[in-house]
Predict the 3D structure of the following.
Amino acid sequence: MRSLSALWTGSAVVRDVAVLLRAGRVEAITPDREAKCPNDAEEFDGTGLIGMPGLVDCHTHAIWAGTRLGDFVRRLGGESYAGILEGGGGIHTTVRATGEASEAELTALFRARLGAMLDRGVCTVEVKSGYGLAIEAESRLLRIAVAAAGGQRVQTTFLGAHAIPPGRDRNAYVDEVCGPMLAACAPFASAIDVYCDRGAFTLAEAERILKAGKAAGLAVKAHAEQVEFTGVAALAARLGALSCDHLERIDDAGIAAMAEFGTIAVLLPGAMLYLRDPAPPVAKLRAAGVPLAVATDFNPGSSPVGDLWTCATLACLTMGLTPEEALAGITSVAARALGLPGVGVVETGSVGDLALFQPPPGEIADPRVLVQYMGGHLAKAVWVGGERVR
Ligand code: NIG
Ligand code: FE
């Protein structure tokens, strides 16, 4: 890439650079005037463009079938997210529709969503199971995710503990999640997650589930302190969690534990807005030194938002992030929330994931304008692992 006007490296903006990709990696980043394109390399003219590391969406539920329009209308009419879930709707509506969809249908839906993300420069996508809630149904979703990946990096997370199927005895279900379901899913997942909240799992259940996942070799994550405060952020941090996500209702002890154990805070402004929740205590998280990632939480219920750029902007407007924090939150810090070194950054030796964007008409070539202008930024060109995919 020659003559890139500006490049976000994952932590800073550098100007007028050339980036050499070779053997799937970033081989060199040089001031443009010193750059020489090797004979065997193809040259791409980046004049006027903004370079970004391939974006990282570190929290999605992007494999599902069916609609949740009914929930959306009910919530606008005043019903609560947790109340609808406890009444057998919400997540359970999506579990039923997903169960009725064939493998081919789910693959096509997931690929369509992934494709729209790649169009926007998102090269790494985390995807959770959690719309199966039975042994075969959960492992099927993870298998589909792994097989459908195609051009992107897809990281899978086992979320059998998303909700308790209506009519199931909760102790028996938790036993199943920690035993045979985990055994069936662990080969297709790199992390375990739990939804510890009103209408879902208790703190004691979450502890059993996360410990079982950890013992099976999975990284730990948690949907934490979203609808109600439970204390799961502190628990997960002590278990060495990579990330705790949502955090609208986290307390000081939870923040202190996350800071102590190096747990990343994944902020999800889509869910916060759709559920009309208060903002998480970002100033306190920042002051404690907890790294801040931003993700879409893409799902049909609490966050029907698939555009990571939109979420970066919303994180600034509704949560108080700076544009630089938002840029780090969708790149380098998001990759840390997935435990992926060398991803979400452009530095010598990092993976060759790169996305180039044109500034909005009339704007300057500064990565921050892509946060200032909300969403819909389609990449001019995208490379994953050094391969041109857009
Ligand atoms: O991250 N809150 C739990 N899980 C998802 C929502 C899933 C759904 O509503 O279908 C979330 O918000
Ligand atoms: Fe989620």
Notes: The chain is about 35% helix and 20% strand. The longest helix spans residues 103-119. The two ends are 14 Å apart (CA to CA).
